[in-house]
Design a protein that fits this description.
Layout lengths: L1 H20 L9 H5 L6 H11 L4 H14 L3 H5 L3 H8 L6 H16 L6 H4 L7 H12 L8 H10 L10 H11 L5 H14 L18 H5 L16 E11 L4 E5 L10 E2 L25 E5 L4 E11 L9 E3 L8 H13 L3
Parallel strand pairs: 1-5
Antiparallel strand pairs: 2-3, 2-6, 4-5
Helix pairs in contact: 1-12, 3-4, 3-9, 9-12, 10-11, 10-12
């Protein structure tokens, strides 16, 4: 009983804090509008949650706004051209999300709308335990527990969970579940995430401004800045490759679309052999390939990439063995391919 009363008080305090300090984000219905009866758009909530996976709020804002301007409804997105969607996603990373975005939009349209429960949402392509809980909570005010990295940090400090991540995740989830209220669960979920993002930050948490500072066991022990603990990560391996960038006399570039499955799946890129322990020469056509003596360095989730370049100017009637010549918008390229483009442009004459 005491725990229930204490948890109710904690929910009240953080919701009061959220009502004043909620972050202004383009996909969010703020507490003032919620109080007036404005309901979140499940489409906007879903789109933002997919974009925010493994990505920062700052990086997502412009992408989200552009997607909504191009495809204002889930029906619009479901009817969109795959290549255009992949192009607009370029630079946001984790490209399997973009492929699943289209699959999910089309599944939602076939269903006649978004499911309103976590279990129902889990049946959609690309929606896992976290995303389904977040959509159910934020869009439909279901009392689901939403646990992202910010929430894990708050729980680790509130309850002084010293077990290192990832082994600590089940305890963090259980603690978060114990605090989730039936009243305003969507606002509560966003409040805890905002608390972690703005107050209970990884370094130098601003405990004096925290609505839960009296409850925080880590603060009481003076160890808040050391939590959550983490198992040291193994060093990332290095892979090598060579990208072939050919510009035709009319300004078109030789590109290929990568297979739908795998890294950068479905995205435009430069021809070349698969990346591996050594760089393999695999030119897509006969040309006077030049080595500019520079390389692209890029880091993916699981490895570092060192990508050598081969650059050529070719005649207007050049015929490649692989890929197609086409004009491009650099913004349509994933980040690593755009880095290669920028280096190539700096070495080729205008």
């Amino acid at each position: 009983m005491c725990d229930a009363v204490g948890n109710a008080g904690r929910a009240t305090r953080i919701l009061t804090w959220y009502d004043t300090h909620a972050r202004d984000m383009p996909w969010r219905v703020g507490p003032a509008d919620r109080a007036k009866g404005v309901q979140p758009d499940p489409y906007a909530v879903w789109l933002s949650e997919v974009m925010l996976q493994q990505t920062t709020v700052a990086a997502v804002r412009n992408y989200f706004t552009r997607f909504l301007s191009l495809w204002p409804t889930v029906q619009d997105l479901a009817a969109a051209d795959d290549a255009q969607v992949m192009g607009e996603w370029a630079g946001l990373g984790y490209y399997a999300r973009a492929r699943n975005l289209l699959k999910c939009a089309r599944a939602v349209v076939a269903l006649g709308g978004f499911p309103t429960t976590r279990d129902g949402l889990m049946q959609l392509p690309g929606i896992g335990p976290y995303t389904s809980a977040a959509i159910a909570s934020i869009a439909f005010d279901a009392p689901e527990t939403v646990v992202d990295g910010n929430v894990e940090r708050v729980m680790a400090r509130m309850f002084r969970i010293e077990t290192p991540l990832p082994a600590a995740k089940p305890e963090m989830k259980a603690r978060a579940e114990s605090l989730t209220p039936d009243l305003r669960p969507g606002d509560y979920a966003q409040a805890v995430m905002d608390l972690g993002a703005t107050i209970c930050t990884p370094k130098s948490p601003a405990c004096g401004f925290c609505p839960w500072n009296r409850d925080c066991q880590a603060r009481a022990a003076g160890v808040q800045s050391t939590l959550p603990a983490r198992v040291p990560k193994a060093p990332k391996p290095v892979r090598y490759g060579i990208a072939f960038l050919a510009r035709r006399a009319d300004g078109a570039w030789l590109l290929e679309r990568r297979p739908d499955s795998g890294l950068l799946g479905g995205m435009l890129g430069w021809p070349g052999a698969a990346w591996g322990d050594v760089a393999t020469e695999s030119p897509p056509m006969s040309a006077d390939w030049q080595d500019p003596g520079v390389e692209v360095r890029h880091t993916f989730t699981h490895f570092h990439l060192r990508l050598g370049l081969r650059i050529a100017q070719v005649p207007a009637d050049a015929v490649p063995e692989a890929g197609l010549f086409q004009t491009i918008r650099p913004s349509d390229l994933p980040t690593v391919m755009r880095k290669a483009y920028d280096l190539a442009r700096s070495t080729l004459p205008d």
